[in-house]
């Protein structure tokens, strides 16, 4: 599936929820399901420091594709992180660099991307693109 | 910042697990080499009201000036700078229902006269010459440029408003709210208060077992409850308690018991969703 197909699938999945509680319960569940980052990558260099929640991110380059693993100490952030990982992981560096993550807006989660939310999500997306860029060169 | 500029050494007054300053340790730290004591009147993280009078008296025994950060005090308590004999006191306009971008720095005249201006601009100069410039008198010496007139007027109005209600009445009302809030929230088993000083302003800082304060904040936010989450710019304090931060409900005189009930139910919801 392309990045946009995965985004569209997420949007469809979330359209089933009728209120914010179901939506957030799903995000929390996704956080619990996220494959954890390998312990050896849970270190300072892989830490993306939002002001509040910590996010660890690691990227691997295999067969021309980038694979991400990530973790967070806050479960809602982890759920959001898992969605971004799901969308961007397993694609070529070029696809990742050119991607536009419209699903966040469509799911009504835009507030989590604002600078003042400082949960590290925005910096994480930026970091994923930097990983992709590094793998190209 | 002063440490970098002046090679000063910063020494920190330790606190106990309730979030109270250890006054014995503080007194032991004082000697003739200390240039300035700077302390919060009220802690923004925990709401602890520090024993300012004692702090100032002990410092003055060694001739040390004391700077009080009263940003979290002036909206909750009646503060009298001359009575407490503070050398300097600072507070922000927007934390006392006034406008942003303006604050107050009070200083004793003897210090202000002895201090050079920190900024140049219109109004702060008496006569200008190429070889010597004479600074204007207080307070103009420290008020370079055209002042923020609108905000000054607004801040004056905000202070008049607080005084018209009366800070003693505000304190009584907020104390009652705080007690109600503590009683109510302490019935939630998963909730841990952070900062349980004997003397506290109306701030309830807490965590939910096993949950990140950020997560609790997101859920309360969805319920329309405004709390602050995070380390409240006091990371060393949070490290001391081994937590990433807290959820902080700050109660003001416009809050009600019903709103505390709403907070109570909101926290219950968060506990249930995050477990
Ligand atoms: C105790 C204390 N001092 C200072 C500040 C900073 O005030 P200002 O934003 O007006 O600089 C705050 C809050 O932000 C505070 O709680």
What is the gist of this entry?
Chain A is 48% helix and 15% strand. Chain A is an alpha+beta fold. Chain B contains 10 helices and 10 strands.
Protein traits:
heterodimer, A: 137 residues, alpha+beta, 3-stranded antiparallel beta sheet, 6 helices, 3 strands, 48% helix, B: 275 residues, 4-stranded mixed beta sheet, 4-stranded antiparallel beta sheet, binds pyridoxal-5'-phosphate
Give the topology.
The complex is a heterodimer of chains A (137) and B (275).
Chain A: H1 3-14, H2 20-33, E1 47-49, E2 54-62, E3 65-72, H3 75-88, H4 93-98, H5 103-106, H6 121-136
Antiparallel strand pairs in A: 1-2, 2-3
Chain B: H1 2-6, H2 23-29, E1 37-40, H3 52-60, E2 66-69, H4 81-84, E3 88-92, E4 103-107, H5 109-114, E5 125-127, E6 134-135, H6 149-165, H7 167-185, E7 191-193, E8 203-208, H8 213-222, E9 228-230, H9 235-241, E10 246-250, H10 257-274
Parallel strand pairs in B: 1-2, 2-3
Antiparallel strand pairs in B: 3-4, 5-6, 7-8, 8-10, 9-10
Helix pairs in contact in B: 7-10, 8-10
The structure holds pyridoxal-5'-phosphate.
Helix content of chain B: 25-40%
Strand proportion of chain B: 5-15%
| Strand order within the widest beta sheet of chain B | 1-2-3-4
Give me the secondary-structure category of chain A: alpha+beta
Question: Low-confidence segments of chain B, ≥5 residues, pLDDT <50?
Answer: none
Distance between the termini of chain A: 25 Å
Can you offer a commentary on this structure?
The complex is a heterodimer of chains A (137) and B (275). Chain A has 137 residues and is of the alpha+beta class. Chain A is 48% helix and 15% strand. Chain A is built from 6 helices and 3 strands, in the order H-H-E-E-E-H-H-H-H. Chain A has a 3-stranded antiparallel β-sheet. In chain A, a hairpin with a 2-residue loop joins strand 2 (54-62) and strand 3. In chain A, helix 1 (3-14) crosses helix 3, helix 2 (20-33) packs across helix 3 and helix 3 packs parallel to helix 6 (121-136). The longest helix of chain A has 16 residues, at 121-136. Chain A is globular, with a radius of gyration of 14 Å. The two termini of chain A are 25 Å apart. Chain B is 37% helix and 15% strand. In chain B, helix 3 links the parallel strand 1 and strand 2 (66-69). Chain B is of the alpha+beta class and 275 residues long. In chain B, the strands form 3 sheets. In chain B, strands 1-2-3-4 form a 4-stranded mixed β-sheet. In chain B, strands 7-8-10-9 form a 4-stranded antiparallel β-sheet, covered by helices on one side. Classes of the chains: A alpha+beta (137), B alpha+beta (275). Chain A binds chain B through residues 20-21, 24-25, 28, 51-54, 73-77, 118-119, and chain B through 211-215, 218-219, 222, 229-231, 244-245, 273-274. The structure holds pyridoxal-5'-phosphate. The site of pyridoxal-5'-phosphate has 7 residues of chain B, from loops.
């Amino acid at each position: 599936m392309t990045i946009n197909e995965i985004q569209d699938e997420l949007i469809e999945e979330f359209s089933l929820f009728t209120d914010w509680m179901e939506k957030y319960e799903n995000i929390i569940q996704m956080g619990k399901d996220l494959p954890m980052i390998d312990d050896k990558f849970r270190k300072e260099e892989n830490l993306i420091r939002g002001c509040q929640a910590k996010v660890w991110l690691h990227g691997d380059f295999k067969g021309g594709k980038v694979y991400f693993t990530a973790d967070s100490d806050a479960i809602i952030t982890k759920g959001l992180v898992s969605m971004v990982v799901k969308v961007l992981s397993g694609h070529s560096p070029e696809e990742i660099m050119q991607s536009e993550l419209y699903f966040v807006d469509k799911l009504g989660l835009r507030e989590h991307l604002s600078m003042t939310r400082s949960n590290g999500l925005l910096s994480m997306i930026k970091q994923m693109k930097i990983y992709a860029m590094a793998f190209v060169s | 910042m002063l440490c970098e500029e002046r090679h000063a050494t910063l020494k920190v007054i330790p606190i106990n697990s309730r979030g109270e300053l250890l006054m014995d340790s503080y007194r032991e730290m004082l000697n003739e080499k200390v240039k300035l004591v700077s302390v919060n009147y009220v802690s923004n993280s925990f709401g602890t009201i520090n024993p300012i009078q004692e702090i100032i008296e002990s410092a003055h025994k060694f001739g040390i000036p004391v700077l009080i950060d009263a940003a979290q005090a002036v909206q909750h308590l009646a503060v009298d700078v001359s009575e407490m004999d503070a050398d300097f006191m600072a507070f922000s306009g927007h934390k006392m229902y006034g406008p942003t971008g303006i604050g107050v720095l009070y200083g004793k005249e003897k210090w202000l006269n002895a201090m050079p201006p920190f900024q140049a601009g219109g109004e702060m100069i008496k006569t200008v010459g190429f070889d010597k410039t004479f600074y204007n008198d207080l307070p103009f010496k420290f008020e370079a440029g055209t002042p923020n007139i609108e905000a000054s007027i607004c801040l004056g109005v905000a202070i008049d408003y607080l005084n018209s209600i009366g800070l003693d009445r505000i304190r009584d009302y907020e104390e009652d709210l705080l007690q109600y809030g503590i009683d109510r929230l302490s019935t939630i088993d998963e909730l841990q208060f952070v900062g349980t000083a004997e003397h506290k302003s109306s701030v309830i800082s807490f965590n939910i077992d096993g949950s990140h304060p950020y997560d609790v904040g997101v859920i309360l936010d969805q319920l329309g409850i405004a709390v602050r989450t995070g380390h409240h710019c006091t990371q060393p304090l949070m490290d001391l308690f081994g937590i990433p931060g807290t959820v902080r409900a700050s109660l003001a005189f416009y809050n009600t018991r019903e709103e505390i009930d709403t907070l109570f139910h909101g926290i219950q919801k968060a506990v249930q969703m995050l477990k």
